[in-house]
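User: I'm putting together notes for a lab meeting next week and I want to include a structural view of one of the chains we've been expressing. I don't have a solved structure, so I'd like a prediction I can at least talk through. The sequence is below, exactly as it appears in our construct file.
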Amino acid sequence: MSADRLRAPAYEEKVRARIAAARLWAAHQAPYLASAVFALNPVILEPARDEDTGEPVADPGFRAFPADTRWNLYVEPGTALATPVEEVGWWMLHQVGHLVRGHAARSPVRPEAGREVSPAAGTVLDEEAHRWNQAADAEINDDLEAEDLRGPAGVVSPAELGLQANRTAEEYVPMLEVLAQAVSRGGRPLADAIDCGGVVDGQERTYEDGGSGEGPSRLDRELLERSIAAGIQDRISVRGEVPSGWRRWAEERLRPSVNWRARLGAVIRRGLSTAGQADFSYRRPSRRLGAYTDIVPPSMVRVVPDTVVVIDTSGSVTDDVLNRLLAEVTAIIQGAAGPDRRLRAYCCDVRPHAVQAVRRASDIELVGGGGTDMRAGLAAAMALRPRPDLVVVLTDGATPWPEQRPAAHVVVCLIGDGGHAPAWASAARVPADPPRRVPTRGGS
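Assistant: Thanks for the context. Below is the predicted structure for the 444-residue chain, given as structure tokens.
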């Protein structure tokens, strides 16, 4: 038997002991995430070895203790033995953040988003995947810093980069792109090139073959996330401190589910009611007051609000889903504003395409297919004349939003489980049907 095989059990035991100690440290630092930390499944990889001594050596490519969406945590032995227990525990909390907040499902570079993935994905991340990794890291590290848990050297820190606090990954992407452009002109690098694994972008890595099974079932994950959210709410109820990002996540996670059609109809009708302010009009004289005076006064009428629909055609939502929701939305608007009401519609990816004036949802031509930026679509809608009273946005929410509330009332139809709507908008979350085909769209 070789000397390497004789050493293997002892060295693996040391690695597992370090992982166990790191779990305890992480659970103590963030008790509300303890159940998620203990749900991680460590997968010990083959070590990188010194060519002369054969001893395990640290591999910088695994410094983040990368994970996948099956809750496997990939541990490179040399890296684990060379990393302090506290730093290993910090990375556990970091990877739990990616898992629980669903960064892989929200990723613009995941295979389901229509992006072609190289068979060797995971060896070198391209610029878009790397930027998403950094943005997702910023969303998580912001909350870790709020717990006074400073990350290792070289990780993305919103505070150190001068970025706004308590933002989502979708909001951090354009901020980091601006900083990266400054770096290209001679500034200092934003952070090290760290790969957190498939847990952050949904792309499979070559080392994931060593992972076990399919991980927790959908029901197990549902119960785990509800347990975490309930723990956060309990901590808040006894005036315990919880970072705002985790507080926001728990509130959304525990929000009771409702019939999405009823919710969608309610928010759109409320938007129509709010946008169409009551006014006096002589086109409908007041019969009640006219019976008591010779002067014919006007009656109160509600102006039918002008509505614009902005449609996210970036490619992450299929045409089938968009057509179904457009039919729902136009039916609700026509039911509240009257039949044959002409609508104006914008298809938008990173830019708005030509405005379309239609009477039926089926008349809208879906064009586009690039990135996603609903700020551009909302800006185009507000530049229309006459300016709309109500803007209805159909999107999966994986987009930056304007920081300021537009002049019109905005209703956001969030498609699927990921993404978010801005705090100043009314929102209704609607299900996304599984895509049955790859959509094809024409140009503008």
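A couple of points you could mention at the meeting. The chain has 15 helices and twelve strands. The domain at 260-278+304-430 is CATH 3.40.50 (Rossmann fold).

User: Perfect, that's what I needed.
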